[in-house]
């Protein structure tokens, strides 16, 4: 039986981490909304999920078909979207009962002091140059609500990365992760500002919710320390992570060290 979605189908490349008969889990990039605010909006996660003849719950009646919770557009991470009407009801019940666990890394200004709330369990916290990173669990998948109730400001400047979801179920307990929990690293970068590889390393770390201390090689003290750390090796950036030195940007090596999938 054919179904006609209420919103547009858009050819948007998406990073899907799980898809079964009942729901799909995709990694929403920063800068993309989860669903359109009006039927005319096209560049959202659910517009893209309607590709390839995917059926989503409520697709004929809703501009937010199958959506259980919503990350703010500026945030990144795993979003669950139901494919069947009975599934969306079951998942929304689990969500409203606080039975789903969401794991985040959150980058904040070090001057922001989050509130103590039963909605957030803090596992780790690390300060860097001009950023602090928090590793938390919460039953809340709505990052606008977390800004309001944990950061006390719905418009607070923060970057959430939802890196793991734990969904209980009577038949199957599902865990979907784009990375494993690990202690937030002590992480120092020795970089040259115009270096594209150095900038790519910083983007990679920030995209995955990590912080770092940046030592720009524009003074003799930083250059001397960089040379001491890298020894006879050549290349930049020089990365000091939890006392271990590596030279250059090796994506796979960094993913392994940071326990990213």
What does this structure look like?
With 261 residues, the chain is α+β, with helices and mostly antiparallel strands. The chain has 2 domains: 15-177, Pseudouridine synthase (2-Layer Sandwich); 187-258, Glutaredoxin. It has 6 helices and 12 strands. Strand 11 (238-241) and strand 12 (244-247) form a beta hairpin. The longest helix has 12 residues, at 85-96. It starts with 14 loop residues before the first strand and ends with a helix.
Write the layout of secondary structure elements.
Blueprint: E1 15-19, E2 23-28, H1 45-49, E3 76-82, H2 85-96, E4 101-108, E5 121-127, E6 132-138, H3 143-149, E7 158-167, E8 174-177, E9 187-191, H4 196-207, E10 213-216, H5 220-230, E11 238-241, E12 244-247, H6 251-258
Parallel strand pairs: 3-7, 9-10
Antiparallel strand pairs: 1-2, 2-3, 4-6, 4-7, 5-6, 7-8, 9-11, 11-12
Quick synopsis:
With 261 residues, the protein is α+β, with helices and mostly antiparallel strands.
Order of helices and strands, N to C?
A: EEHEHEEEHEEEHEHEEH
Compute the number of helices.
6
Number of strands: 12
* C-alpha end-to-end distance: 37 Å
Oligomer: single chain
Helicity level, as a percent range?
Answer: 10-25%
Q: Which structural class should the secondary elements be placed in? A: alpha+beta
Query: What value does the Rg take, in angstroms?
Result: 21 Å
Number of domains: 2
Main sheet overview: 8 strands, mixed
Low-confidence segments, given as residue ranges, are: none
General form: elongated
Could you tell me the CATH topology label of the largest domain: Pseudouridine synthase
- Roughly what is the average pLDDT, rounded to an integer? 93
């Amino acid at each position: 039986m054919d179904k006609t979605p209420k919103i547009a189908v858009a050819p948007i490349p998406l990073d899907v981490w799980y898809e079964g008969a009942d729901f799909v889990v995709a990694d929403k990039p920063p800068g993309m909304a989860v669903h359109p605010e009006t039927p005319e909006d096209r560049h959202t996660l659910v517009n893209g999920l309607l590709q390839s003849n995917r059926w989503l719950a409520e697709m004929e009646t809703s501009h937010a078909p199958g959506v259980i919770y919503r990350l703010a557009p500026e945030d990144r991470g795993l979003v669950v979207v139901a494919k069947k009407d009975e599934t969306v009801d079951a998942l929304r019940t689990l969500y409203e009962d606080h039975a789903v666990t969401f794991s985040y890394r959150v980058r904040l200004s070090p001057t922001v002091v989050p509130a103590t709330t039963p909605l957030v369990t803090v596992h780790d916290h690390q300060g860097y140059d001009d950023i602090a990173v928090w590793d938390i669990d919460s039953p809340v998948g709505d990052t606008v609500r977390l800004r309001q109730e944990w950061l006390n400001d719905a418009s607070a400047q923060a970057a959430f990365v939802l890196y793991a979801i734990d969904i209980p179920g009577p038949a199957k307990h599902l865990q979907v992760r784009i990375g494993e929990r690990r202690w937030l690293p002590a992480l120092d970068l020795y970089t040259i500002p115009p270096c594209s590889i150095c900038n790519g390393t910083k983007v990679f770390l920030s995209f995955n919710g990590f912080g770092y201390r940046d030592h720009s090689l524009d003074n003799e003290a930083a250059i001397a320390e960089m040379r001491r750390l890298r020894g006879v090796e050549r290349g930049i950036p020089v990365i000091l992570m939890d006392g271990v030195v590596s030279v250059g940007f090796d994506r796979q090596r960094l993913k392994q060290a940071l326990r990213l999938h």
